[in-house]
Amino acid sequence: MLSAAALLLAAGADPGARAAGLRLWALAGAGVFAVAPPNVLFPDPNVSMLQRLNWSPPRLLRYQARRLGPLVLLAAVPAVLVAYGDSGSPLQHLGVKTVALGQGLLLIGGTALDSFVHFATLGARSQAWHEGRAGQWYARAVEEQGQGISLPRGLVPALFATTRCFAVGVAVVVATAAAAANGLHGLAWAPGALLVGWAGVRLWRSRAAYDRHFYHTTAFYAEVLGGGTVAATDREPVPYDALYWVPARWRPAAWASIRQLDRRLPLGRLVAVAHLGLWLFCIRGGAPAFITGYLTLVFTGQVAACAVLGTPSAAPRPFQRALQSVGDWIGTRTFVNLRWFGPHMGSLALVVLFGDAYGWAWVGTWAAVHVGLSAAAATAVTLATEGSVRSAA
Where are the transmembrane segments (predicted)? Predict the structure, then answer.
């Protein structure tokens, strides 16, 4: 989706606009790298195996850097498309496009490396805050003035780190843009290069003792996220009463299924991002065939997520068959899939209200498509799980 958006936004843009777009994309990447590394890296799911293998500190560093690699590619690949995605004149201004891409990738790499180093070595500082050996000024502000954020004390350094990493990313992007705007094209490389060098020096200094940083930080996050003594408050599950639109016969199972799905997959965030992409494509005047394919992909992906509820850990098959019949599970999962029916149709209604390319019949057609896909996905998952138990019996 990001690649398609990059191609659409860059279509027909001149080299100057592409350079500006790459800097804006690097700014967005700075926001992602300020938030995502602790969620991607910690707690490490393979820590027990790594302790048995007893890898050297440099090898642990390479292992953890590879785990962040897909996130860097998620930012770098659309940047390449913004730079070179030019169907009208793909071979023109290659030098200017390459320079802009190089500066953009340098900014993306610098912010990614800076955030990686900062978060990967945060364990000792977080533990010190939790034990009261650091952050006394913050404790006094909370206790005496009632100020502060409702978080376990050990998580406050991670919150500060998010702000700090994003501020650094904004600073280097703005400095690069200022140098380019004033015609100092050579100096436009300096902010990104300095950030890469600064982060690289810090990482090199931590290299010899990286095993201490790795195990300390992942142990702290495992305690926070795994229900230890400093466990953070979990997000409130969907209330039972909120499922008033589900028939009473299937409501208890639908509620339990939605809770399981929410624990395993942040589907609401993915649906929101998908519709942001839809609005972007519609604003840019995307072809109806492209919009149709995009919505088909979004709706199919959303209903296909109910396959998570068919895994053995989520749905022990004999136990599921003891609770409900196959037909009841199909009905239950159909309504689980229809949970996002309202947001989907509301988004399409906004497209109709603020544009003239589509009408209300278009919304009705997609409503029918979503209901059909919800029932089809629910039927397929149920026949492959509870249905297979009945066949075996």
Answer: 23-42, 68-85, 105-124, 155-180, 186-204, 267-287, 293-315, 336-354, 360-384
The overall pTM is greater than 0.85:
no
Query: What confidence tens digit (pLDDT) does each residue in 69-78 have?
Result: 888 888 888 8
Give me the residue spans of the domains in the chain: 2-225, 242-392
Residue 46 falls in which region: left (phi positive, over 0), alpha (psi -120 to 50) or beta: alpha
Q: Which amino acid is at 198?
A: W
Q: Side chain identity at 326, as an amino acid letter? A: V
* Nearest-angstrom CA–CA distance, 121 and 161: 11
pLDDT at residue 247, rounded to an integer: 93
Q: Report how far residue 85's alpha carbon sits from residue 365's, in angstroms, rounded to the nearest whole number.
A: 33
- Could you tell me the two tokens for 246? 């589900």
Contact 170, 110 (CB under 8 A): no
- Taking each continuous run of H as one helix and of E as one strand, the counts in the chain are 18, 0
For residue 8, how many other CB atoms are within 10 A of its CB?
A: 18
Those residues whose C-beta lies under 8 Å from the C-beta of residue 287, and which sit 6 or more positions away, are none
Amino acid (1-letter code) at residue 381: V
